[in-house]
Design brief:
The chain is α+β, with helices and mostly antiparallel strands and 489 residues long. Helices cover 48% and strands 6% of the residues. Among the domains are: 146 residues, no CATH class; 88 residues, no CATH class; 68 residues, Orthogonal Bundle (Arc Repressor Mutant, subunit A).
Length: 489
């Protein structure tokens, strides 16, 4: 039998404290989410409060505590120490404020009215249709399978199988097809289509039957692949038409909506993102002044009532009941939690300001003039060295944060870019190269767009020696398609 031995072993382990974890989490979130996080903490921790607002979570022992307060304060022999979370001031107030808003500003949540959702709009049209009760039930089930773009991506046989299990209805595909045709006659035009081709055909058939529309229908029905790949020469030969007639037909197709579901007002899907800047940069006579946008972020402090409760109970530990002891333990835990949270917010704000200040110093010429050409190559490591912070911290600060300047609102990631050297040896930002690439493509002949190889030659003439694969990478990052897909008639 193997012998067992006991031994002592020392290990070095790096663990994050609860406060460090809290700071990291708060550092990642933008201002809008910070407001919600503070609201949640105020709801969960009665010790936290906003100055000027009295806490509703006061225990039944308030009168007793207040009565005992005057007597216990006289007892100078008992020592009481809660230095970790009690301010030396009689009115402790751990406040988090940067004073960039006046006392007249109000914290308001503006309500918004919701309109009819996309599916509700379709259900209304079902109720107004000439379908019988069974068909209406089928129509409602089909509408439930329409995605947010307005398409039915599933085949009708699968939907038919689902209806057997979910509704105990045996429905043939032909019956579903008949009801689907009715749905495809609803507004918005193109809804209920099973493919892009079908969606465009449904829409264009509602147009007035002029020559360009009739040609467009033929192209969509019989030459859809050639149209999507922009093989216009094949279409010209197939239909023996002129460039002008083809252009007129293509123009009719380009007016159609490939995502009919997105054309409806759907309050549940907000396509327009409201950006709330985390930083505000103002230029006062050449002096750049940076501040945090804390307009709707309330000040925080720890409730004096609960701090006094700890002081009173701690001085009379022998005389308090078990219930009061439990209350004391609970309140102490909440005090520590409140202190950690307030310190975490303060540390978050200090880190944000420290990081953004160094970004502004690094890109000072850009922030003074707003000229994109003045942006210097800058990576996370550059700011990490300047701030003496970890690269991961800089990454968290720059993620999902925005700054408001005199020339627009920008994400912090906008100011980070790698560098390249021109033939002259001058280091330039890749952002500048992308800007030049965009300008070259914008000014090209759309009937003969430049290939990536041609773009390499154009940039080389401007002293930028860049490989073709790099051009392709930058073009894709800019959302620019290949030359063939940029071709126009």
């Amino acid at each position: 039998m193997p012998s067992q031995k006991l031994s002592l072993q020392q290990k070095l382990l790096q663990k994050l404290s609860p406060q460090q974890i809290q700071v990291i989490k708060l550092l990642e979130i933008p201002t809008v989410q910070l407001e919600q996080r503070i609201k949640k903490e105020l709801e969960e921790n009665p010790v936290l409060e906003i100055p000027g607002e009295e806490s509703d979570d006061i225990s039944d022992n308030n009168d007793t505590v207040d009565e005992e307060s005057s007597e216990t304060d006289k007892n100078d022999g008992d020592e009481f120490s809660v230095d970790d979370y009690v301010d030396s001031d009689d009115t402790p107030a751990y406040k988090v404020s940067f004073g960039n808003y006046s006392g007249d500003d109000k914290h308001q949540e503006i309500p918004f009215s919701t309109g009819t959702s996309f599916r509700e709009f379709l259900f209304e049209q079902v109720s107004l249709s000439s379908l019988d009760e069974r068909q209406k039930k089928l129509a409602e089930y089909l509408i439930g399978n329409i995605d947010d773009d307005g398409y039915i991506r599933r085949n009708l046989s699968s939907i038919s199988d689902d209806m057997i299990f979910h509704l105990n209805m045996e429905v043939k595909e032909e019956e579903l097809e008949e009801v689907l045709k009715v749905i495809q006659s609803f507004d918005p035009a193109g809804v209920g289509a099973r493919s892009l081709k079908e969606c465009l055909i449904i829409q264009i058939r509602r147009k007035k039957e002029i020559k360009s529309v009739l040609l467009a229908i033929k192209i969509l029905e019989d030459s859809f692949e050639d149209f999507t790949k922009k093989h216009y020469d094949k279409i010209l030969r197939k239909y023996d038409i002129t460039h002008e007639k083809l252009k007129a037909a293509i123009d009719e197709i380009l007016k159609l909506n490939p995502c009919p579901g997105g054309s409806c007002s759907n309050p549940m899907i907000k396509t327009n993102q409201v950006i709330v800047p985390d930083f505000i940069l103002e230029d006062n006579d050449g002096e750049l002044e940076l501040s945090l946008n804390q307009k709707n972020v309330p000040e925080l402090r720890m409730s004096k009532h609960y701090l006094d409760m700890i002081k009173i109970y701690s001085k009379n530990k022998k005389d308090i009941s078990k219930r009061q002891k439990d209350a004391l333990v609970f309140v102490k835990q909440k005090v520590y939690s409140a202190k950690w949270f307030i310190d975490a917010i303060r540390q978050r704000q200090e880190t944000l300001l420290k990081t953004m200040t160094e970004i502004i110093r690094f890109q000072k010429e850009y922030f003074q003039e707003g000229d994109e050409g003045k942006l210097r190559p800058m990576i996370l490591k550059d700011i990490a060295i300047r701030t003496d912070l970890d690269i991961s911290t800089i990454s968290r600060v720059s993620n999902s944060k925005y700054i408001q300047t005199n020339f627009g609102i920008f994400p912090l990631k906008y100011f980070f870019s790698e560098g390249m050297h021109k033939d002259s040896g001058e280091e330039v930002s890749t952002r500048e190269i992308k800007k030049i690439l965009q300008e070259c493509i914008d000014s090209e002949d759309k009937q003969k767009p430049m290939t990536d190889d041609k773009l390499v030659q154009v940039l080389k003439k401007k002293s930028y020696s860049i490989a073709r694969r790099t051009i392709a990478k930058y073009r894709e990052q800019l959302g620019i398609p290949v030359a063939r897909m940029r071709k126009k008639l």
